[in-house]
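Hi support team,

I've been running sequence recovery on a batch of backbones for a student project. Most finish fine, but this one hangs at about 90% for roughly twenty minutes before it completes. I'm not sure whether the input is malformed or the queue is just slow. I've pasted the structure tokens below so you can try to reproduce it. Let me know if you need the job ID as well.

Thanks,
M.K.
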């Protein structure tokens, strides 16, 4: 293989990975899979797509070696092919926000406008958790909590928040987190908690960033 031929072949493979994420829905699927493995049916529900369409998107990601599968009975479970994929997602998100004014505008209109929710940094959460003066809520779906969560966190999926209020201490500082800095579940949870008189804030990041930072991750149900 000559030098030019080798370069062309190499860049073709780089483009192969880029083409695999050239779809908003495939990026969304990767973001959900960054929380843990899921069935096609669950991914279809989270991404608001039909199962057939979801499966087609997943096959594109699988051919690019961005996701892997395992079979359990008749069900097929998908997962990220490695932490490198999660790192790539974070880098893609940061690049888009840094270079695209449209991204920054959306973030400003939805998230920054809610910064009265006083986002908590990872370092502050670690410090406060060490002192034992914070209640950490994981508001993702229960199966994502079981796949990996911040040690000591309580699993309170957003759709079960109202039913869980009785077991949340009124005077404690509550910090809610979800899938990442642009996940809407934690801001919604904090707004609902504050409306009911709780002292609540959101974590500035989410579970993938916590894991990529090399911090401890607990698995299993609470």
């Amino acid at each position: 293989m000559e030098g030019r031929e080798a370069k062309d072949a190499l860049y073709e493979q780089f483009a192969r990975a880029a083409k695999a994420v050239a779809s908003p829905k495939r990026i969304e699927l990767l973001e959900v899979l960054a929380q843990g493995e899921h069935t096609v049916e669950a991914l279809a529900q989270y991404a608001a797509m039909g199962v057939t369409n979801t499966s087609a998107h997943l096959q594109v990601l699988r051919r690019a070696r961005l996701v892997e599968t395992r079979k359990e009975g008749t069900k097929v479970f998908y997962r990220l092919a490695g932490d490198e994929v999660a790192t790539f997602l974070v880098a893609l998100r940061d690049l888009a926000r840094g270079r695209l004014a449209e991204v920054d505008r959306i973030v400003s209109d939805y998230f920054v406008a809610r910064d009265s929710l006083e986002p908590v940094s990872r370092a502050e959460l670690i410090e406060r958790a060490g002192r034992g003066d914070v209640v950490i809520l994981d508001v993702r779906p229960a199966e994502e909590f079981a796949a990996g969560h911040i040690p000591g966190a309580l699993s309170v999926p957003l759709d079960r928040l109202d039913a869980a209020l009785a077991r949340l201490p009124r005077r404690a500082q509550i910090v809610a987190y979800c899938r990442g800095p642009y996940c809407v579940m934690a801001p919604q949870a904090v707004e609902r908690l504050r409306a009911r008189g709780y002292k609540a804030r959101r974590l500035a990041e989410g579970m993938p960033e916590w894991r990529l930072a090399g911090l401890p991750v607990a698995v299993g149900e609470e």
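--
Follow-up from support: It reproduced on our side and the slowdown came from queue contention, not your input. The chain has two domains: 3-85, 114-212. No action needed from you.
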